[in-house]
Amino acid sequence: MEGSVAYDNDLNLKATELRLGLPGTHEEQQAVSSSTVRNNKRPNGESDARNETAPPPKAQIVGWPPIRSYRKNNSQPKKTESEGVGIYVKVSMDGAPYLRKIDLKVYSGYPELLQAVENMFKFTIGEYSEREGYKGSDYAPTYEDKDGDWMLVGDVPWEMFITSCKRLRIMKGSEARGLGCGV
Amino acid sequence: MESSELKRSKDSVNSCESARRSSFPDEVLERVLSLLKSHRDRSSVSLVCKDWYNAERWSRTHVFIGNCYSVSPEIVARRFPRIRSVTLKGKPRFSDFNLVPENWGADIHAWLVVFAAEYPFLEELRLKRMAISDESLEFLAVSFPNFKALSLLSCDGFSTNGLAAIATHCKNLTELDIQENGIDDIGGSWLSCFPESFTTLEVLNFANLTSDINFDALEKLVGRCKSMRVLKLNRSVSLEQLQRLLVNAPQLAELGTGLFSQELTIREYEELESALSNCKNMHTLSGLWDATGIYLPALYLACTHLTFLNLSYAALQSVELAKLLAHCPQLKRLWVLDTVEDKGLEAVGLNCPLLEELRVFPADPFDDEIVHGVTEAGFVAVSFGCPRLHYVLYFCRQMTNAAVATIVQNCPDFTHFRLCIMNPGQPDYLTNEPMDEAFGAVVRTCTKLQRLSVSGLLTDLTFEYIGRYAKNLETLSVAFAGRSDWGMQCVLGGCPKLRKLEIRDCPFGNAALLSGLEKYESMRSLWMSACNVTMNGCRLLAREMPWLNVEVMKEDGSDDSQADKVYVYRSIAGPRRDAPPSVLTL
């Protein structure tokens, strides 16, 4: 596994660099299960700086607070199921040598998701319209849903999308144009 | 069984010999000693002289082994030939919080094999934090024809199939107590395995299981076991089913309900209320999953003589709790969720003057956004109303030194003080100072303190206080605290009765570890994880102290020289041979 590579602007090796991390992030994400929290001085809960945009998930310390696991399982069912595990899906791009994986839960909507995918594979998706799909580029983002059908990204509400999306595929060329020209 | 070596001077042996000659028959001595129940008293007795040692070992029927690796089953069987009841504890306590690797050990099977050979008349087995498989349960069920009582607390490795084997074969079973285990719940048909002729069950606790049970089988079982006094159901049992069980078992002393939420007609509600109030002997009530204000009044009449109320699965609000507590004047032990907030705890202080134990659990321990829960105010309110309070477990998000000082002034008799300020390293939120003075007040004022868990921002001063004042302290739990080796050295240098020390994420290193060399032999165990101890320090400890087992658990990808998790315990059985590859014995 390579460490940092000299980034040549033309080749832009960074785009194809193999590394851990979410698309769009520049640092490695903190290992979530680390318990090496050494600094004893810690600010009160509120004074953690929280941005308006999606804050990074706070690293949970293993075994803290000291609650037995049977207690966590048996008490009140949580209000939102969405706390906890991410929804990782594969992203393939026609013509790219390998696939990527992204966590859909990190994004709050389609614009963020598409921006991230654009950055990841270095291309531009066109403008979305309900009537005509994605106009203005050779690419169309599609996804495979629970029934195994290939759907155009953007047609259904975001919440419904993230629960039914099994994998993403960026279609290119004539196939894509076919989708873009209205259904 | 304490593994203290027998130190008998020549003089005491001689005087024993002369006493013997004035004829005090062994049988009489054994008869007298058989009345001794406390294992600590028995340990003392066995040290008097050789005769007493022998009389004690022949008269002992129950053995308590606090660390299963401190001794081997063969050694136990050799010393105590007439055991009928065994209590065994296995994994370090931090395994409850996922800090111990899965396959760490503490498997009961080797013990069962020896017991089957040496104690065929074994009646009781009580295990805590042990690994037990279905095969072992089946082996147990068929090997001991007189087997009466099985209690499994925080164990893992078995499924409901193992319970089926127990139900099928143990014809004399009086107790089946399955608590808080990592159990593979395959289904509830195990209850049908109790034969129709089986009537001896007195204690049945399956509250831990999650799947539906065969209610028909349960109803029949409860109906024919007229001596049943403890029945703790799981969540799958409905209110309507509860009522049907209770009409056939009004003699119950301890009841754990199932789900306490269901749509009932007026008549069904009244029947439930009547069935509950008919349980005149009921002193313990638990379960109450998802209980809400609507049906709690059904309990009011049943609570008159209640001494232990466990509401830790019912997210009650303060008003609901207050109304319920008005009917529980005799309450000595109360467990609640922090959804009751400070107002709920005020109600505790007002209604429960006899309260001795309070445990407040967090409903949402991992959610920082929550600004509810309990604060120092609730704890202080309880302390004003409940002067007999001696056991507390309190999870909160803020605390002050002044509050704790007030609390221990009101309740100086604490034996167990476990305070968990949930944000690691958090100072006194009013003064921004460390919480040193809080725990200083605890150890100075509460002279009977046996168990202490500290939290919040703590410097070495806390540990100076503990070492200096906590003369009766036996168990100390420390997390995210301290500044230097000096802190841990203070504890190891003081605390004459220290038996268990568990530390995580503290800046204590080799100097601290090695300052306790002699101390560890008088302790049951030491746990240190995510501290600054190195492999070399551990190797040195192992080399200097041959009677200690020094085990190191390595994390993936950590530095080779760091000892990530260290578990040290005294043992007369030598290093264990069943350690998994991730555990190194030095």
Task: Describe the 3D structure.
- The complex is a heterodimer of chains A (183) and B (586).
- Helices cover 17% and strands 17% of the residues of chain A.
- Chain A is an alpha+beta fold.
- In chain A, the strands form 2 sheets. A 5-stranded mixed β-sheet of chain A has the order 2-1-7-5-6, sandwiched between helices. In chain A, strands 3-4 form a two-stranded antiparallel sheet.
- In chain A, a hairpin with a 5-residue loop joins strand 5 (139-144) and strand 6 (150-152).
- The model of chain A is unreliable at 1-10, 24-57 and 75-84 (pLDDT under 50).
- Chain B is an alpha/beta fold and 586 residues long.
- In chain B, the strands form 2 sheets. Chain B has a 21-stranded mixed β-sheet, with helices on one face.
- In chain B, strand 10, helix 11 (266-277) and strand 11 form a beta-alpha-beta unit.
- At the A-B interface, helix 1 of A face loops of B.
Distance between the termini of chain A: 45 Å
Give the number of helices of chain A. Answer: 4
The percent range for helix content of chain A is 10-25%
**Coarse morphology of chain A:** elongated
Rounded Rg of chain B: 25 Å
Q: What's the SSE pattern of chain A?
A: HEEHEEEEHEH
Q: Level of helix content of chain B?
A: 25-40%
Q: Reading side by side through the largest sheet of chain A, how are the strands ordered?
A: 2-1-7-5-6
Structure summary, number of beta strands of chain B: 23
Strand content of chain A: 15-25%
- Low-pLDDT windows of residues of chain A: 1-10, 24-57, 75-84
Q: Give the low-pLDDT segments of chain B.
A: 1-11
Compute the average pLDDT of chain B.
Answer: 92
Terminal Cα span of chain B = 25 Å
Number of strands of chain A: 7
Structural class of chain A: alpha+beta
Q: How much is the average pLDDT of chain A? A: 67
**Helix/sheet category of chain B:** alpha/beta
Report the radius of gyration of chain A as a whole number of Å: 20 Å
Question: Quick one: overall form of chain B?
Answer: globular
